[in-house]
Amino acid sequence: MCGIAGFFGHRAVSAASIAAMRTAIARRGPDAFHVAGSTRDNAAFVRQEYVDGLQRALLHARLSIRDPRPLADQPMRNGDGSIWLCYNGEVYGWEDDKAFLQRSGHEFFSTSDTEFILRAYEQWGWEALLPRLRGMFALVIVDQRLGKVFCARDRLGLKPLVYYHDTDAGEFAFASLVRAVVPYLPPAKRGFSPEGIDAYLTHRTIPAPRTVFRHLQRLENAHCLEFTLTTGELKKWRYWSPEPLADGGNTWQGELDRAIALRTAADRPVGLFLSSGIDSTVLASRLVEQGYSNIRTFTAAFDNPALDESGRAAAIASRLGMQNDRIAMPHDPAGDFAQIVADLDEPFADPSSFPTWYLARAAVDDVKVVLCGDGGDELFAGYKRYRQHLRSAWRRHLPAWSTLRPAPAIAPRKRQRLALEASLDWLAAYPLRFSGIGLSERMALQPDFVARPHWWRMPEQLEGRSPIEQLLAVDSENYLPEYILRKADLLTMAHGLEARAPLLDHVFVGRVLAMPASERFTDPAKQALAGVCPQAAEFAFFERKKMGFNPPVQTLLQSLRPRLAGLPERLAANSDGQLSVGALAQAVEAWSAEPGYGEQLLQLLILDESLAQLVAWRDPGAGNG
After folding, report:
1. Whole-angstrom distance, CA of residue 468 vs CA of residue 501
2. H/E run at residue 7
3. Residues 76, 84: contact at Cβ < 8 Å?
4. How many helices (H) and strands (E) does the chain have?
5. Which residue among 236, 308, 516, 594 is least packed, with the fewest CB closer than 10 Å?
6. Taking the model in full, what pTM does it have?
7. Kind and range of the H or E run holding 225
8. Model confidence over 394-409: pLDDT tens digits?
9. H or E element: which one contains 299?
């Protein structure tokens, strides 16, 4: 697990710009840092100590998990230096393929998965490499023999990759984080994206392929890129789509155990984020059943009993014979607010980011890897919004009822929200079930911008799928990779902690997709998943309401209230006038008095801090050669 960055062009990049890129990814990889590159277009890549004037380069900040010896550091090269790999992630279950490669004459010098990927590419090439990778990854391979740069993001989107491309200039740059690419951009291309800002207001995050910067894109999950060094051409395509896997092999229950066991592979200590919910408890139970009872568990503890699961989690861990650490959440996060916003990279307003950040900060003192239960709700339809939207599934074959847009309003009435839903077809209206600031409010805040109802991507090839399967497909393209998984990656890696999600193993996902609908979709949800936990009856999963992981928003807002002073003026200036001072002032006044707008007010506070940081970061005075 690491932070990666790189660039390919024809201009010499200053040492100051490369240092800024390094600074951006440093927290993701505290154990080692290296640069490989060249100062001329056709020169061979070599490890670089003096980095001023490079035209092409790979940067790698390493969090060492598998084979922590320096010989497994990156960027990693093949024997003659014609192929280089810069990789963030972890892949599993490659030992048989490694044995084949060794029999075929490939010599290995480490036990790292990095070297396996490099040798596998040498043997099989790009197209045949990706199907062999089981796990999470954002990887870049430079093949100087072909004059190509290949990039890929993993199937479910656990690892991030953002990029910049200019065909005319023949330039391509990439990184784990937005902030790591910005120092490479020409100053004229560092402007914010109006669409990105509106997408953030809509969804609390900016879904791929957009970012907050106009000239930066985020690679979608299960997609890859091919950049040609000589022509500057960039190609993008999807290399994988989720499909049912019912080939008579392992059962979904057996595949779950294998997915969990594979993710215990590490040369550093492994832990588990444990709540009292089904997903993480099933992971804990299956770990113990497979003999991994020595894995330490970590639970966030809140003062508010209505939010606190730590007592139940401790009881679950005790019953399973696992150690549990109760991590008390701070009463006042205001002192850490700026750092948390910085670690989120670009505007991102999920209230659960705060406890996640604190939980990761505490856990990294004892472990370097944590398993987490992400993905269970998206696989087994655990969110209540699915049931809510299914109530109107009868209109999925009907066109939108209305073409009228709602009127701009800082605090619109309910009928305006209903009018917006009626103006969309059934599936296109689904993103409104999980949104940030509504269309009427966004139209008022951005009077000169034509806001869209939503910015989610709609999946293709939904014919023949049931209504619930269509909703899950939408989430697998948007909410899961761009909200849940992005948050988990950013906030764990900010502390040098690797998060692994066994429920999102792509082979396990295929087995789940092949389950009979009556077994997979139950009321209450996730009965099949709970059924693989031998202690399910004792833990009484279905005898209480599903709990989220959010802190009390009003308490959070109280600690941040001093930041509201001057917010309208700052946001209007930093958004280049896209956001209206007057409308922002009205929103702050109205939303501060209405508890139901707490999360929207938090969105504005986070946007204010994030844009202020990014304005300072993109300053051309930071230096670009």
Report:
1. 23
2. strand 2-13
3. yes
4. 26, 18
5. 516
6. 0.95
7. strand 223-228
8. 887 777 766 677 889 9
9. strand 296-301
